[in-house]
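Final report, closing paragraph on structural work. Over the funding period we assembled a curated collection of sequence-structure pairs, and we close with a single example.
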Amino acid sequence: MKIFYRILISVFVINSLNLNAQSDTDNSLEIEKSLSLSKTYLHKNIDSSLYYCDKALKLSKSINNDSLLAKSHLQKSSILIFKKGFSEADSLLQNNLTKVLPNHIKGQTWHNLGTIQYYKQDFEKALNLYLKAAKILENSNNSKLLVNTYANIGSINASLKHFEKALSYFEKALPLSDFNESIRLQILVNLSTIYYDQKLFKKYLTSATEAEKLAKKVNSKRVLSVIYSNLSNYYAEEGAEYDKAISYGKKGIELKKELNNLHTLGYTYNNLGYSYLKKKEHRKAITYLDSAMLGAQGVLKSYIFNNLKESYIGLKDYKKAIYYADLKDGLKDSITNAQQKEKVAKLTEQFESEKKQQQIDILDTKNELQALTISQQKYLLMVLLAFGLFFLVLGYFGFKNYKTKQQLDTVLLRQKLRKTQLNPHFLFNALQSIQNFIHKNDKEKSGSYLASYSKLIRLVLEKSDENFITVEDDKLALESYLNLQELNHNSSFVYTINIEDSVDEDFDRLPTLITQPFVENAVLHGLKNIADGSINVRYYKKNGFLYVSITDNGNGFETSKEDSKTLHKSMSMGIIKEQLKNLNRTSKSFNGDIHIESSSTGTQVTLSFTAA
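Its predicted structure, as stored:
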């Protein structure tokens, strides 16, 4: 029987990596330099590491730079974690989370919070924090930070026996670890251990072989001794290549002696003895098994006794074989007895716990009987409360349905308004006219009208989903619109737009593009068949009201019955009144009104609004 020796799975702390932050100040460069030195000294001289970190922290506070301060907090938290100062480290990291920081710093912060929980043995909480860190770091495109987080997630899953998840994260971490041979070596050893447990021997051999080469390169004798012991076990048990198993076993023993790692020598001696046993070199097997006996305890001792028994059977020395078989059985009985005692202790503890629980249940029953009387008295009140709550819920959903319908009405109204503002015939005619100027190579006019066209379309599309716009935007829309209409009608009319000093065109607001349909009506119907038409738009304020007057010198409403109908349709008065009604209802302290005066000499439309 051989024993597969496991290396301890490590958890990495992110040491606030120097991320080459660019700065124009000497202080920023000095901070980066101090953080880099602190990171360098972390595993060599903790006091020096702390000195340089505190220096960076002080400078970061003096220049009030959140990112550099957060990096300094990260580095100090890493130092404190090594010193088991978890409370202070957690405080620094929580301070980072109150700031708006780049993803790579935010991810490192969650990583170190996970490491604190790992050292506190709260593996589930640590795992959740590492997973959060990984999600953030994946968006930072920095593999140097992400590899440690993936490796730690793999380590915790391996500790919790979630081997498939552990493999998934170790395999993600491995291709990202080329920048650091020590981290890559640790990942390879952990991968090979899990591959062996899961009987993925081909993958085990590949990762173990690479780990062996890398351990030699970085001269990590401790890791190399473990790799040799495990390869010895593999070649004896799975590969059936006993010479290789013996060679690796001897290398492992030699390194363990050199490192004075005597407490694990028994495992390697037993594995080497087992290899000779499988090779049927029984005397050599006994030599190494005898060496394995020194300090052996528990299950290891049982394996050694069994291998010695098999070796003596191979030598046909049945007396000694029986002797070691008896020792093994006796040890097995003692182990079994210890296990049984442990089970009895657990059962006793469980019995006492159940006994106490029964007493608690009896008391609970008495309390329940008392509570039942009280609950019956409260039952009627609860029913009434339930009915009250039911009607309250009905009222809530009724109100919510009303608000939803109101919002839908607003959306539909905006769609209708947009249709009135983007008349397809007007847009087509404007484009056709601009096209004519382009064909005539009139660059100045085509450029001017294209600018008006684009301004109008942009304003309509951008502002039609808003309830209000500024006077300046409304004026710009009307100028663009009238400029294009002037083009479509061969300059048969002139227009003016005036904003009086009483109006603050950047801050005073009115309903979105409400003036455009009235101006359209003036152009299409008011000035129809008028040779020298004119339109005047005036914005002014009086007694706290904002007014917009739109005046034309056209034929007025009463020219003909047919034109009156056309006017009504063109202006979409129903939609505009619906818009004002909706705004009057939904916008606090807003009130809007329309007043129209028309005669044979022209029409004046006056719109009035309270401050929006």
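Residues 318-421 form the longest helix (104 residues). Residues 11 and 152 are 5 Å apart (CA to CA). We thank the funder for supporting this effort.
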